[in-house]
TrEMBL record:
Protein name: DUF5085 family protein
Source species of the chain: Pseudolactococcus paracarnosus
A Pfam family this chain is assigned to: DUF5085
Organism domain of life: Bacteria
Amino acid sequence: MKISFQNIQVEEKIAFQNVISQRKQVHYKKMDGAFQKFISIVVASGYHLKGTYFYSLNNAPIDEIVDIEMFIPIYENCFDTKNLATFNYHTYFEVGPVLKNSVTESFEKNTEQVYAELLATLEINDLEINTPFFHILPRDKAKYTYIYLGYTSNSLFLKDTEGERE
């Protein structure tokens, strides 16, 4: 794969077990509060956090409203969705293959650049996006965020249909 930008890495996948998620639409400036509330509800419900918190950005923000899905792995291998109806439980969560880049400092300012580099890398390699952007936050409160983007190739489909052309 041709990588034209310094920090982009090709990764096999991102994968987690026993993941709780919740999808919400919030103003981008209120995302931090939504994350804190999500984590607080999970912990108050008796679950134990395992691993790092991450979220997907499922839209291009319109009027500063973002459609996000928040995820957190837990130690428990079951989850009571009756009491938490707006939450989902995934025994296994996997996305792959993915490109990875990181945002350091000035998150709001630098994120758009990272998105553009990831998308340009897909375009240069004739690959197609097949996931939203995933943001994996550090556990140690460091000032960086990893951003992942899943992709697929049309080359398999093109190879299959090339023989059918006359």
